[in-house]
């Protein structure tokens, strides 16, 4: 679905309209000092957008207060990267809210919810708003996506849903809210497997252990003590790769594998052994 939308200039125009509304709302609210906001665009290098709309993606809409000179920039869904995910959420949630048939007419029969962020910290350091952020990302987002896409899957009497959880669902120091929300995703996965099974829709989860992604390397710099501690826990004595995870996802997406549902597959180099029950 993402790939098809990324070739469609109308998708980008829609993102632009969402941004226009967001910017308009910010400007209408004015500055907190009571001053008036004036346009003060600054350039931004567009990434990954279609040539036809590129010129409209070359500036970030921001504003400057005529009194205190403070700068304000509105939320944006127009710029690709991690934002495209947010953008898709907005589009799907809006179509659903509008009670149009757009969402159900999308012929999306495979959904992989692959989104994650870490808000590390011991329990005493956790801010309630960090919990909200991860609940939105790890739980609210897949719920909205499923609600939007379920009618089409039911119509087709076929669907493959894969959630990406984490080995950390079994517990991990410094990861209270990451662990809790990724464990919550397993509750969704198992419940949806029961609810959608008779409609030919399977729901499974992949729970990766340490994977050498950019995000992982930021938290565990190569050569650091954390990295050595992590390797010590991995039976196969190496970090995983995104391909390791992708192959597990492909298994669950395979149309022939309709007899496997509600399962959690650890792709963790053996780091769940001794922690996960049989
Ligand atoms: Zn001001």
Q: Could you characterize the architecture of this molecule?
A:
This protein is α/β, with parallel strands linked by helices and 278 residues long. It has two domains: 2-73, no CATH class; 107-267, NAD(P)-binding Rossmann-like Domain (Rossmann fold, 3-Layer(aba) Sandwich). Helices cover 44% and strands 13% of the residues. It has nine helices and nine strands. The strands form three sheets. It has a four-stranded parallel β-sheet, sandwiched between helices. It has a three-stranded antiparallel β-sheet with strand order 1-4-5, with helices on one face. Helix 5 links the parallel strand 6 (110-113) and strand 7. The longest helix is centred in the middle third of the chain and has 29 residues, at 128-156. The radius of gyration is 21 Å and the shape is globular. The protein starts with a helix and ends in an 11-residue tail after the last strand. The relative contact order is 0.10. The model has no long low-confidence stretch (mean pLDDT 85). Bound molecules: zinc ion.
Biggest sheet, in brief? Answer: 4 strands, parallel
Strand content: 5-15%
| Number of E strands | 9
State the CATH architecture of the largest domain: 3-Layer(aba) Sandwich
Question: What ligands can be seen in this structure?
Answer: zinc ion
Number of domains: 2
Short note summarizing the structure:
This protein is of the alpha/beta class. It is built from 9 helices and 9 strands.
Blueprint of the fold:
Blueprint: H1 2-5, H2 9-29, E1 37-39, E2 42-43, E3 59-60, E4 62-65, E5 71-73, H3 83-97, H4 102-105, E6 110-113, H5 128-156, E7 159-164, H6 176-196, E8 201-208, H7 214-219, H8 225-233, H9 242-253, E9 264-267
